[in-house]
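Let's practice the habit of predicting before peeking. Look at the sequence and jot down your guess about where helices and strands might fall. Then scroll down.
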Amino acid sequence: MTSMKKTCKKCLLPTDYLNIEIDDKGICQHCRNFSKTEFLGPEKLLELVQEPLKRNQSKKYDCVVGYSGGRDSTYLLWYVVKKLKLRPLAVFSDDLFIPEIVYENMENTCRILDVDLRTIKHDNLKKCLPHHLKAWIRRPVPESLAVINVGERIGYETLVEETAVKEGVHLIFGGRTPIQEEERYKSELIKLSKSPGRQGKMDWIMGYGKQVLLNPALVSNLFCLKLQYKEFTVNKWKQKLIEENDLTIVYPFYDYVHWVEDELEEILFNELNWKLPEGKINSSRFGCEADTLRQYLFYRTLGYNDTHVDLSYLIRDGQISKEEAKDKLEDSLDFGEGYIEYILNKAGVNGKQFIQVLDRKYPETA
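Done guessing? Here is the structure:
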């Protein structure tokens, strides 16, 4: 499966990307308006962490790092240990859809860095994924793909903070980068108005309501409906948890340190002995299987997914040429139908039948 869509002349965003505006030179507004982030620098980062460190009540840990096993959080863990010289506790939210190679990379990384790894398993995603997949395939449109991963976010958004409170730690590190800010199309899709100027919560709620009216099966399971509500409002009670316990959350690669892919991969493969799945040449996006499935479904229904967005950012940032990005994109879009069918079966649906329905609705990705 390859992408043959016409794209912006500078990046990989297709000309039918949500809200894209191509000028007469064939260049999108994301490229025209791009300006490199002015990072505050590692010295400012060190200054920032001093105050929460003074409030630390743990004798064993200086901080907690949200650790997904992906490349960003792995690089973050390395940075906290090697550059900031702190003693982190790595907290992993295990949604039970994690490939074995991710566990291996995590355990190996923590051994090399001499970091404790605390894995917290939860089955919310496992309980709801079968229902949401069976409901979604009744009307397989990209707008309602937001419900597919319900149960995953509630883990990684709160378990890290709850662990920090239990340990008496007030400093938390997260791996968010400016690249992830570019992936807004997923949340904008479900809004009633797709206009980028309409960012209000009500527009999102009305868009969600429209999808429910068109496909009532999305809310036919009471447990999953409650979990949808809890997850879609998670930021509110996460913020309450932060304020009540005086927690400080820092994203080094968002505000302070420039995230550079070549440097990251040098650390992953040469210092931390990272391994890739067989046949893969790209270090990105082989974590949670449910997320891999959702990326596949975005690609099948839209013709693009997060990888198009991420690589386009790296082109604008001067880290990679468009030709190099195309090679990485080709590798990332080779999901392997057998692997997708395996994930679907593991999730509790008939993978072969699911893909057959999808093929009838979306016979090919142009």
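How did you do? The CA atoms of residues 103 and 255 lie 29 Å apart.
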